[in-house]
Design brief:
rod-shaped; two-stranded antiparallel ribbon
Length: about 260
């Protein structure tokens, strides 16, 4: 079986792979546990022997190479180690020893476990995934709450296109924004395309005749934005036209 040295509290603890209850698991010997905790191995053996019903399904025997040749040695699974440490914590131990026990319990949970398809399926990976899921959920909740606050605060004064930069800031990424045009910009574009002078007033009149404009908010052709008037602090509304609106105005002008 495979063996591996894994650090714990400044020392190297040997972990083995052994078959226990029909499953290949990462396990640890009584002697390694006693060495890591600084306890007499007889204390561990006594606890395990005293509660056979509890420990019998949680321990096994593996063949290990020793200076005297191969020997069969008792080992504990992850759940067996945790059960042992709970028993030890419930006993009369010094605070310093209790701290070591708690640290070793964390080490055992993260290190030992079932081996499946060459990958260690242990509690550490499960805890890591749960932590990632928790952070992702908290992040989603915070993002949604931030978006809701922005919409509640500015939704009645800003158009969807103007809200997008604020929402982009919350999300931490750019959101594609549809290009919009003022009547003046459309007039310049169409003047260049047709070769004749087209005024912004003409654009506004055509938009009204086509029913493109809205009194507030936006539709598929136009949107109402709020902007500060030039040379004054006065806030005014401005009509912006989307590509679909520009196309209809272009068709109406040509025809």
């Amino acid at each position: 079986m495979k063996t591996q040295l894994i650090p714990f509290s400044g020392q190297q603890v040997q972990v083995n792979e052994a078959e226990v209850n029909g499953k290949i698991q990462r396990v640890i010997t009584f002697r390694e546990i006693s060495s890591a905790l600084g306890l007499d191995i007889r204390v561990i053996r006594r606890i395990v022997a005293k509660d056979k019903d509890l420990f019998e399904p949680l321990k096994g025997v593996t063949k290990m190479s020793t200076p005297g040749g191969e020997q069969y040695t008792s080992v504990l699974t992850r759940d067996g180690v945790v059960a042992l440490l709970v028993k030890l914590s419930a006993g009369h131990v010094a605070q310093a020893k209790r701290d070591i026990i708690i640290g070793f319990q964390r080490w055992a949970i993260e290190t030992l476990g079932e081996v499946m398809d060459g990958t260690y399926k242990d509690a550490y990976m499960l805890r890591l995934q749960l932590e990632i899921d928790r952070l992702r959920l908290e992040g989603d909740i915070q993002v949604k709450a931030g978006i809701i606050r922005v919409v509640e605060k500015y939704g009645d004064r800003l158009s969807g296109s103007e809200l997008i930069p604020l929402v982009s800031g919350i999300l931490g990424k750019d959101i594609p924004v549809e290009r919009t045009y003022s009547a003046t910009e459309i007039a310049e574009i169409l003047s260049h395309e047709t070769g004749r002078k087209v005024s912004a007033i003409k654009i506004g009149r055509l938009a009204k005749e086509l029913g493109l404009r809205v009194d507030d908010g936006e539709n598929e052709y136009t949107l109402i934005t709020v902007t500060k008037a030039a040379h004054t602090d006065k806030v005014v509304q401005q009509v912006k036209y989307k590509k679909a609106g520009v196309d209809l105005i272009r068709q109406a002008l040509v025809n």
